[in-house]
């Protein structure tokens, strides 16, 4: 397990995560797609995507309890429930993604993303086929296509930022993004987007919501208001509390603080 990052596309990821000190967006070795704040970068090798899908299939077929990935998707796996954070997602975020988000999203919490949530979503027969327009409970989101051979359709569609337009106009002049196995799309959580209907086959994506408690403790990303926190069982969900004894800000260990709007 300690060598699992060998399956990341390390040569390209290192180039992406270590830009020159004077670099601007155009000098970062990842594709900048039409529209401000939307990037594509290599994350996993195709070999690793196949291995991970085999592992996810085994989990799905097991009797292990499975939490729903989020409030919109009905099919998928919360990866922290199965230990993926320690050896895969934590190192990936800290060693590779943090330098990139610090450069690309410095004004959107990208320099202090301390509370991630990662999960998979599955589309196909017996699962969701599409996903309506929405924004994420994150400051920055990474969406990686894991594949499954032979699927068609299901492109991501990006519109405007949530604060720019009314919801009915959020996908005006949309940008369609095709899934590319092993590659991730990096965008701000407030970037309105949807998933088109899957036309055939089955697809699975790994999604990492990267949250900043420094931002979320001031303004909830879902309601755009100061968060009114309610304790509920679980892991942290993007907010932290002030420890009265040490005055150090820490996430709850046995309860999750969630905004009343969630």
Automatic annotation (TrEMBL):
Superkingdom assignment: Eukaryota
One Gene Ontology term of the molecular function aspect: L-ascorbic acid binding
Domain called Fe2OG dioxygenase: residue spans: 114-212
Entries under SMART domains matching the protein: P4Hc (SM00702)
One Pfam family from the record: OGFOD2-like
UniProtKB keywords: Dioxygenase, Iron, Metal-binding, Oxidoreductase, Vitamin C
Cofactor: L-ascorbate
Database matches in InterPro entries: Oxoglu/Fe-dep_dioxygenase_dom, Pro_4_hyd_alph
Name of this chain's protein: Fe2OG dioxygenase domain-containing protein
Organism: Pomacea canaliculata
Lineage, broadest ranks: Eukaryota, Metazoa, Spiralia, Lophotrochozoa, Mollusca
């Amino acid at each position: 397990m300690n060598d699992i990052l060998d399956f990341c596309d390390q040569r390209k990821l290192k180039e992406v995560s270590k830009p020159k000190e004077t670099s601007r967006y155009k000098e970062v070795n990842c594709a900048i797609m039409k529209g401000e704040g939307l990037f594509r970068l290599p994350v996993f090798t195709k070999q690793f995507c196949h291995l991970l899908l085999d592992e996810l299939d085994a989990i799905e077929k097991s009797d292990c309890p499975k939490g729903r990935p989020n409030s919109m998707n009905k099919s998928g796996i919360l990866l922290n429930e199965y230990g993926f954070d320690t050896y895969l997602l934590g190192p990936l975020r800290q060693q590779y993604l943090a330098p990139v988000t610090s450069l690309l999203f410095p004004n959107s919490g990208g320099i202090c993303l301390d509370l991630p949530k990662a999960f998979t979503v599955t589309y196909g027969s017996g699962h969701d086929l599409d996903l309506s327009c929405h924004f994420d409970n994150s400051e920055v989101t990474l969406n990686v296509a894991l594949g499954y051979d032979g699927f068609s359709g299901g492109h991501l569609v990006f519109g405007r930022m949530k604060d720019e337009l009314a919801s009915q106009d959020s996908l005006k002049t949309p940008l369609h993004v095709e899934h590319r196995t092993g590659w991730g799309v990096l965008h701000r959580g407030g970037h309105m987007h949807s998933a088109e209907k899957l036309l055939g086959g089955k697809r699975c994506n790994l999604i990492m919501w990267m949250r900043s408690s420094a931002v979320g403790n001031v303004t909830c990303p879902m309601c755009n208001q100061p968060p009114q926190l309610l304790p509920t069982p679980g892991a942290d969900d993007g907010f932290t509390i002030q420890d009265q004894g040490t005055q150090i800000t820490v996430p709850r260990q046995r309860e999750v603080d969630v905004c009343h709007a969630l």
